[in-house]
Specification:
Helix content is 4%, strand content 63%. It contains four helices and 40 strands. The strands form seven sheets. The protein has a 22-stranded antiparallel beta barrel.
């Protein structure tokens, strides 16, 4: 559709296709032999009332999510096919979002990002992305909104349970001078959280300036955030779930015989992203894309630590006034992270009647300083100076790759897909670590990741077969949190998939069979670090297999239903539990091995089901969605006492929209989450040891909110 302004014409269809060029290297199409689902901008806007992005994709196949605060705001994450977020490849316009060292994306640092997203594609399995860390369960590819060529201003405000408020301002200039469009957003979100003191204050922004010409698009975009979140990382001990589900032990200490909570037990982080994207159509067959990116992140978490040994903080003991040697005290510390991530991504795309080819390369560099400071010591004589620095180290990572992917159509219905990627990594950690002591780690990896498949596409039918290989390097914690005898190594995935989908105007049904075989998979052990991060170790032989079923029907213009179901087996072959043995005074004695044979992989439910009824009539709409998640084991022992009970949660949403003469649209929404007030937990950790001949257990469970509500008003001008 051409749009004429003065004496010039901008072809909107060309503009849209140039926007699509940016994500070619990370996206699947109907001809790609990959199981995937998509969320459009319209769907995201309908669901987005202030919760984090994991809550918005929850109805997709094989997806489950968890939230530390219990209400989906602040620290939250998701798993796909039982795979945790630090093993899921996540990109924005092709730029990797996974942290180079931890491999995860902290959604608390991207609040309300969905308001600036046009489309989210979720690929299950090894996926097609060639940028960033390998996908070991899924790929999540996000594309930001194309700026409208007409000027606009939107304001939305949400208010809900647990003192939750969200305000979003968004606007654009429309087309200026026939070529330039500027777009911007600012969001502010606050909540007290469902769990005690799980407060979060988050601000975020997004801005873009896009220049269009006949065959050229140049876009600069920046987005970032600032957050302050009270820690809720420890969870609720299992013994307290029935008596006090909102108990939060973070920051707890005792003074004068009274239990108190440190009021600044918080996480604080600032992050800014800058992307410069250029797309050029060379001719009818060739186009190219170049992206330069830079991300800066900086922040700390502060916590109160009781009865800490001075030696752990490189502090010296001292002689008190009464002649006693003082070796420990209460203290407050801050652990800092200051990092920079930058790089370049290039791809060229060839389109012909029977063949599509994408070739490209990328190089990314990361530098991150990790350091800690003691801010206060109860026994002031132990602190040599304010802000005493007790450790510092630096992680550096250089990641580069080259790839070529091709789709060739033998006939109008049958096509071949082939994808080859070489990826190299150089990673170092040097300095003093607070856990591992002096570290001097230098690792190089060289991976070849081939993928191939066949796709049959008919008028109403699509079927595919595929095989993929992926390799993934250990993350930082795999090195710094590993035991003295552990040497983490890279893991390999062999992914076999087959799928079929039938689509008509009123009905669709699909099935995907998968078998994901792992060599040296880094599997969650059930242990956590001191900031609530799950720890992993290599397991030689394990697999995930299952079937994903999807269906939808639209019997009437105003009524539709969508559903999906996952049935799976997630097993470790020949699993041996290692458990530490101590005497009654907690002196370490030895390590006990328990041979358990074949067990379930932690946090991998065998059954997940989603159902969504949607009603639309004139200016009214409603949604009724439910999710059932089967039993999840917290560690790899398949012990029922260390598991999350199955849960069934239902949400209800009502909406109405009007089009007054003075504005484009006025909309109101009411969401009732957990309609039937289900009491359930979505995540947990456990630590077990043998102490004086008996099993000792520490644990923490993460309960989610009961019935709660959010009301939203949207004003579009």
């Amino acid at each position: 559709m051409p749009v004429r302004i003065d004496n010039d014409t901008l072809n909107v269809s060309k503009v849209v296709s140039l926007e699509e060029v940016m994500v070619t290297a990370t996206r699947a199409s109907r001809q790609t032999p990959v199981a995937y689902s998509e969320l459009s901008s319209q769907e995201l806007k309908r669901r987005n009332d202030g919760q984090s992005l994991p809550s918005l994709i929850l109805q997709s196949p094989s997806v489950i999510m968890t939230s530390d605060g219990g209400n989906g705001i602040g620290y939250s994450t998701f798993r796909i096919r039982g795979t945790d977020a630090n093993r899921i490849n996540i990109t924005v316009n092709g730029v990797p979002m996974n942290d180079a060292e931890s491999h995860t994306v902290f959604w608390v640092n991207m609040p309300d990002f969905a308001s600036s997203v046009k489309n989210i594609q979720i690929q299950r399995g090894a996926g097609t992305s060639t940028n960033g860390a390998a996908a070991f369960g899924a790929t999540v590819s996000m594309q930001t909104e194309n700026p409208p060529i007409e000027h606009y201003f939107d304001y939305s405000s949400s208010i809900g349970s647990f003192g939750t408020f969200r305000n979003t301002f968004q606007g654009g200039t429309g087309l200026l001078g026939n070529h330039l469009v500027i777009d911007a957003r600012y969001s502010n979100i606050r909540t007290d959280g469902y769990v005690d003191r799980a407060k979060a204050k988050m601000q975020s922004y997004f801005g873009s300036a896009t220049w269009y010409a006949e065959n050229t698009m140049l876009k600069f975009q920046t987005f970032g955030s600032a957050e302050k979140t009270y820690q809720a990382w420890d969870g609720v001990p299992k013994s307290m779930l029935k008596t006090n589900r909102t108990y939060n032990p973070c920051g707890e200490y005792e003074e004068d015989g009274k239990v108190k909570f440190y009021n600044n037990q918080t996480d604080n982080y600032w992050q800014q992203h800058y992307h410069l994207l250029a797309s050029e159509r060379l001719n009818e067959n060739w186009d190219m894309n170049l992206t330069l990116h830079y991300t800066h992140g900086e922040g700390y978490y502060e916590d109160y630590k009781s009865k800490q040994k001075f030696s752990k903080y490189n502090l010296s003991s001292y002689i008190s006034a009464d002649g006693e040697t003082v070796k420990k005290s209460d203290l407050v510390r801050r652990k800092w992270l200051d990092n920079d991530f930058y790089g370049a991504i290039y791809s060229a795309n060839y389109h012909a009647e029977r063949a599509q080819l994408t070739i490209g390369t990328a190089a990314n560099n990361y530098e991150g300083a990790h350091y800690g400071r003691v801010m206060w010591v109860k026994n002031a004589a132990a602190l040599p100076k304010p802000d005493y620095e007790y450790y510092r180290n630096k992680g550096k990572k250089f990641d580069y790759n080259g790839f070529a992917k091709m789709t060739y159509s033998f006939t109008p219905n049958l096509s071949l897909y082939a994808d080859m990627q070489y990826r190299g990594i150089h990673y170092t950690i040097k300095g003093l670590d607070d856990k591992a002591g002096d570290v001097d780690i230098s690792k190089d990896w060289h991976f070849f990741n081939p993928k191939a498949g066949l796709t049959f596409s008919g008028k109403n039918n699509t079927a595919f077969l595929s095989f993929s290989t992926a390799h993934r390097e250990p993350n930082r914690d795999n090195f710094t949190e590993a035991g003295a005898d552990e040497r983490p190594t890279y893991e390999t995935l062999y992914d076999y998939e087959a799928g079929y989908t039938f689509r008509s105007s009123v009905f669709s049904v699909g099935a995907t069979l998968y078998y994901m075989n792992y060599d040296n998979q880094l599997i969650l052990t059930g242990k956590i670090s001191e900031i609530g991060e799950a720890l992993t170790s290599n397991i030689k032989d394990s697999y995930r297999s299952g079937i994903e079923l999807t269906a939808s029907v639209k019997p009437l213009n105003w009524l539709s239903w969508n559903g999906n179901m996952t049935l799976s087996r997630n097993k470790i072959r020949h699993f041996t539990e290692n458990i530490e043995v101590y005497d009654a005074d907690w002196n370490y004695l030895n390590n006990q091995e328990n041979v358990l044979g074949t067990t379930n992989i932690a946090f991998s439910p065998e059954f997940i089901a989603n159902s969504l009824f949607t009603f639309n009539w004139k200016h009214l709409d409603a949604g009724f969605n439910s999710q059932y998640v089967g039993r999840q084991y917290i560690d790899n022992t398949s012990c029922r006492d260390r598991s999350l009970d199955p849960y069934f949660v239902t949400n209800l949403r009502f909406g109405c929209s009007f089009k007054p003469a003075f504005m484009k649209e006025l909309r109101f929404d009411l969401s009732i989450n957990n309609l039937f007030n289900e009491k359930y937990e979505t995540n947990a950790w456990v630590y077990c040891a043998m102490v004086a001949g008996s099993r000792y257990t520490e644990d923490g469970y993460f309960p989610q909110a009961g019935r709660n509500m959010m009301f939203r008003a949207v004003f579009n001008f």
